[in-house]
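Q: Got a minute? One more chain.
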Amino acid sequence: MTVRNAMFERAGAFVNDVGAAETETELKSVLADITKELGFSHFALSHHVYLSSSSEPAMRIHNYPEEWEVYYDRQQLGRTDPVHRACQMTAVGFAWSQLPNMIPLTRRDRWMMRAAAKQGLGNGFTVPAHVPGEVNGSCSFATAKGKTLPAEHLATAQLVGSYAFEAARRLLKRERQKLYDPARVSNRERDCLIWVARGKSDSEIATILGISTETVHQYVKQARANYDAVSRSQLVAHALFSGTISFMDIFKR
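A: Always. Here it is, folded:
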């Protein structure tokens, strides 16, 4: 069996392991193991948001040096991270050495990359994650400073990164549903939510459903309370995230 075939078999086992992960700790452990087997030292799985100010649920699971995480957040580097920006340009994995060919690098970008190197991070490989209706994210793998990128394992890293991100989404969604139980939304509230998502006002929804405007207002108000949503757009986002409504509900006629 070739090394490449062996790694693809290992990736298959990883898919089973990561699918069985019930907690973030279990997911992190499984991901850390295969990261080393792929020839990398570090991994970072995250949504591309500034976590401290995000109004939406978001995740960050990694084993980067703690000093780098503190520095990254203190300097608010997540707002302009060149790797995150490059993810907008592709749907497949890319090496960090390709960044100059993907996006214009600013002086701050180059400074950030030098700062990462000082913390022991070398080259890396990032797998973008684009899910309709959600903020973008990625799963990155990084070598230690001075180590070469394991080119023979990048195809496997693409698979691993994609499945790891989906597993993390599943765990996050489960936690979100514990807070905002879709079962508490009545059928009529769900009907109203769909029309809210379609951009209709309370009075328009009342006409469509054949009920009073005040009744619609109360349904929407109760749904916002259930989801702790401060706006109609946030209510729609939470309802989509929890599975209460779907994109098919919104767009079908």
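A: The CA atoms of residues 109 and 176 lie 34 Å apart.
Q: Perfect, thanks.
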